[in-house]
Amino acid sequence: MEGFDGLFFLEVLVGGLLSGVMYSLVAIGFVLIYKTSGVLNFAQGAMLLFAALTFVSLTERGISFPLAFAITFAIMVVLGITIERTVLRPLTNRPPITLFMATLGLSYVIEGAAQLIWGTQVHGLDLGIEDVPFDVSGVFISQFDLFAAAVAATLVAVLSVFFRYTRIGLGFRAVADDPFAALAVGLRLPVIWATVWAAAGLVALVAGLLWGARVGVQFSLSLVVLKALPVLVLGGFDSIPGAIVGGLLIGAAEKLAEVYLGDYFGGGIESWFAYVLALVVLLVRPAGLFGQKRVERV
Amino acid sequence: MSDPSLLAVEGLKATYVNAITALDGVGFTLARGEILALLGANGAGKTTTLKALSNLLPAERGQITGGHIRFAGLDVTRTRPADLVRAGLVQVLEGRHCFPSLTVEENLVSGGLGRGATRREIASDLDKVYAHFPRLTEKRRILSGLTSGGEQQMTAIGRALMSRPRLLVLDEPSMGLAPIVVQDICRTLRRLNREEGLSILVAEQNAAVALRFAHRAIVLENGVTVLSGTASDLKARDDIKAFYLGHKAPGPSTSVASSPPAFAG
Ligand SMILES: Nc1ncnc2c1ncn2[C@@H]1O[C@H](COP(=O)(O)OP(=O)(O)OP(=O)(O)O)[C@@H](O)[C@H]1O
Ligand SMILES: [Mg+2]
């Protein structure tokens, strides 16, 4: 490295942070469900794919963007409620591993259904935002990344307000704190679960659209969940702020590593660096950087 | 329905994970407006009995294997916990179980939500709870996980009151609290009983506290009801004195269906 180029560093950093936002988005979908059901919802990726595929297929049939979004969201809500009724409710009080296996099976069912309904070809998705870099006082920033970050930030803000100020939100936080007490208090857990699945469906839809616009809507889209895993390890499975910061960290670290360390490893660092980082964190802090910080008096 | 009792438990048997027998014949009735104490040593089956009343055993991998529980005409084992709360059977769990990352007031509100109360009802019920427990007023915006044990117990009781119970069930409310706080809580509960006709069922290891507070008491041993009587009768009995002064060693607490006699005391 001959001479450190500060401006270039900044550009890589910003680019990394912005792409990290997309990881955060996927991770938040996991966290929502983990907090209420204590289960790592393996089907999150399938839901993401299903949402994106439904949306594109609708727009390809001439339906306008807002309407397609609304319809897809409605379908995701129905899907969430169906999952709660048919899979989770019969399995309540089973060990977490049973629930995890159930979501694993679920992910195949959803993927299969998506394939059956919408076919297997790759769809392009154009959200009308061009992926062109623009110049902010010497630093080039991708317009699409900026758009994606803004959308993600809005979604997070909406969810935060929802969970802080509504009845269901209070119920959600109560269940996340102490499910047994929530049951004893008489909170309607099925309603809360269904809402959370609907929220996870919304997150899946938004993430699916952003990722789909970036890489095309195809079956490998469900694999972006694999990118969310290191984010969860880093941020903790039960923390939404953790998911956000974790995503940003992974995004930035990945890009920086690729640019500054790539030469030493012959490139392609980006595909595995996040996992190594997660592994290191796992060794040092098994609960992640933000996970399971219980409120307790000392 | 001419049945004068609000709650009737008959021949109740329960196990955990289909193997560990926790209850082996518990029976009692509770009349409207009564305060009944459930006494017993560690592992006697108090908590299991109370969880059965709120139909919470399935969530703890417990099963009711025999007997009946009727509350206000409902067959408890066939009624969902949330519906029991709406019917007026509300429990304050052993160990308080406040929601630690919710504020004290949010904890209280959650009790109102459990009942499906309107916004206005919640607001007026909050005022009542703060009147009963003035100490909570100044803590309302504090995360409940950061409040003291006594305040958490008051929060848990307040949360239960927000559900407008007819029968308030309390599991060892005195556990780990200073005598003065226990006294304070007992006084409040007794006032609710006197003025609003609230029926109360309280499980206690501390028989001294419980017999001062309750009208009547029953004693559990190894998951079986072994004694019942008015508080003043029981107070006079030597075996109860011995029991609450800690002279009598509690026997093995469970009969284990398969093999090892673990889980005792
Ligand atoms: N979740 C559980 N799984 C297995 N066994 C249990 C469980 N909970 C309680 N038991 C057993 O059932 C028996 C009755 O326990 P229970 O908690 O009802 O007693 P208790 O009278 O409330 O005791 P304590 O005064 O210690 O609270 C005990 O022997 C206990 O070991
Ligand atoms: Mg107990």
Keywords:
heterodimer, A: 298 residues, mainly alpha, ABC transporter involved in vitamin B12 uptake, BtuC, 72% helix, globular, B: 265 residues, alpha/beta, Rossmann fold, six-stranded mixed sheet, 10 helices, disordered C terminus, binds adenosine-5'-triphosphate
Characterize the structure shown.
Chain A is mostly helical. Chain A has 11 helices and 2 strands. A two-stranded antiparallel sheet of chain A has the order 1-2. Chain B has 2 domains: 1-88 and 165-265, Rossmann fold (3-Layer(aba) Sandwich), CATH 3.40.50; 98-163, no CATH class. Chain B has 10 helices and 11 strands. Chain B is 37% helix and 27% strand. The structure holds adenosine-5'-triphosphate and magnesium ion.
Structural class of chain A: mainly alpha
Share in helix of chain A:
over 70%
- Describe the strand arrangement of the main beta sheet of chain A, using strand numbers: 1-2
Describe the biggest sheet of chain A?
Answer: 2 strands, antiparallel
End-to-end distance of chain A? 49 Å
The total tally of domains of chain B equals 2
Residue stretches of chain B low in confidence (pLDDT < 50, at least 5 long) are: 245-265
Largest sheet of chain B: 6 strands, mixed
Order of helices and strands of chain A: HHHHEEHHHHHHH
* Oligomeric state of shown chains: heterodimer
Name of the CATH superfamily of the largest domain in chain B:
P-loop containing nucleotide triphosphate hydrolases
Counted up, domains of chain A total 1
Which architecture name of chain A does CATH use? Orthogonal Bundle
C-alpha Rg of chain B (nearest Å): 18 Å
Overall average pLDDT of chain B? 88
Would you identify the CATH architecture of the largest domain in chain B?
3-Layer(aba) Sandwich
Which geometry of chain B do the CA atoms define? Answer: globular
Number of strands of chain B: 11
Q: What strand order characterises the main sheet of chain B?
A: 6-7-8-3-9-10
Our Rg estimate of chain A from Cα atoms comes to 20 Å
